Amino acid sequence: MTEPSSPQTRRHGALFMLTLTRLKEYSREPSTFFWSIIFPVLITLALGSAFKRQGQPELHVGVLEGPGAAELVQTLESHPLLTAQAFPEAEARLRLQSGRVALLVIPPTTPDGKITYRFDPSRPEAPAARAFADDALQRAQGRTDVRAVVDDQISTPGARYVDWLIPGLLGMNVMSGCMWGITWVIALARHRRLLKRFVATPMNHGAYLLSLLFARVLFVLCVDLPLMLGFGHLVLGMPILGSLASVVLVTVLGIFAFSGVAFLCGSRVRSTETGVGVINLVVIPMFALSGIFFSSSRFPEAVQPVIRALPLTALNDCLRAVINDGESLSAIAPRLAVLGAWAVICFLLSLRLFRWT
How far apart are CA 287 and CA 257, in angstroms? Predict the structure, then answer.
């Protein structure tokens, strides 16, 4: 004769079964595989290998510090479409890699030496920046092209646009998966009156929310993350400079943050139509502002504090710092704190506001 299980054991068993049920629901939804797996891969392949070159209205140019750098900065600033600033070598490399400058101008080492233009030709603004910069410098010499120049086009893995893009797509995938995989699921279950049936069970709403969170963590770590990083590394040759453990920890914290946001958004939503509106209200601004396809530093300085406070901005910055720059978790602690604050505050609020009906 077996002893009856304790209430705590039953609660843990219910949480396990709810998580397993949600994972089975994911596997039976064809749209999940398209939007969570196929779509990000298609976006990565399309934008990474065949990004169209387009001019940009405002172009930032960096000049490598050294003899003659101040003169070059002054000349470049005279062009109406360019802003220029001198940087030391390490900072100049990071700014070029992250897209904060479209072009790096390297002064010649001798009076009759060549000016070097370093840029990534796959970035849409880089060729225009190179042309405008060369125009300004040649005009300063009388427009007779007396300054000999050479193009240094970046094509090595780790310094390309696609290497910068993939971490942003991973962050986008975490956000979209949480919002549609949690907020939409809660709204749909409440609309179908499925949540109302849970009222008669001993399960509390905290266990229900945790089951959705654990299902998202397992799905992302077992499917999304290996697929995105594997595709980028094996197919596109993207190097992963930081530790994989740090990438996993950052991703999990990002899931916690966006799951908290999704819980809060779904805590009172009564219809699927309202759920779609709430999801779009959260997702679309971060699509535009948080630096998925281009650096968020392009936006005016006045809105930068708001942009840096967004969870997707923090997640993308952390992923790029670890994957592209090889930084440690301690170096990105302030960004991780932003994600943690979103996770804790939103989850606590959702526990207070959540209703079964």
Answer: 16
- In the block, tokens 């499917």 appear at 223
Tokens of 183: 């907020």
Give the end-to-end CA distance of the chain in Å, rounded to a whole number: 40
pLDDT tens-digit readout, 93-110:
888 888 889 999 999 877
Q: What are phi and psi of 59, to 5 degrees?
A: -120, 130
CA distance 67 to 89: 13
**CA distance to 67, 105, 106, 151, per residue, from 110 (Å):** 9, 15, 12, 18
Average pLDDT of span 289-313:
88
Residue type, 224: D
Q: Are 304 and 283 in contact (CB under 8 A)?
A: no
Q: Give me the sign of the Cα torsion angle 242, 248, 253, 258.
A: positive
Mean pLDDT of the chain: 82
- 1: pLDDT strictly greater than 50: no
Residues ≥6 apart with Cβ < 8 Å to 283: 175, 176, 179
Structure tokens belonging to residue 289: 């502002």
3-state secondary structure the chain: CCCCCCHHHHHHHHHHHHHHHHHHHHHCCHHHHHHHHHHHHHHHHHHHHCCCCCCCCCEEEEEECCCCHHHHHHHHHCCCCEEEEEECHHHHHHHHHHCCCCEEEECCCCCCCCEEEEECCCCCCHHHHHHHHHHHHHHHCCCCCCCCEEEEECCCCCCCHHHHHHHHHHHHHHHHHHHHHHHHHHHHHHHCCHHHHHCCCCCCHHHHHHHHHHHHHHHHHHHHHHHHHHHHHHHCCCCCCCCHHHHHHHHHHHHHHHHHHHHHHHCCCCCHHHHHHHHHHHHHHHHHHCCCCCCHHHCCHHHHHHHHHCHHHHHHHHHHHHHCCCCCCHHHHHHHHHHHHHHHHHHHHHHHHCCCC
For 277-309, b/e burial (b = at least 16 CB within 10 A) is ebbeebbeebeebbbbbbbbeeeeeeeeeebee
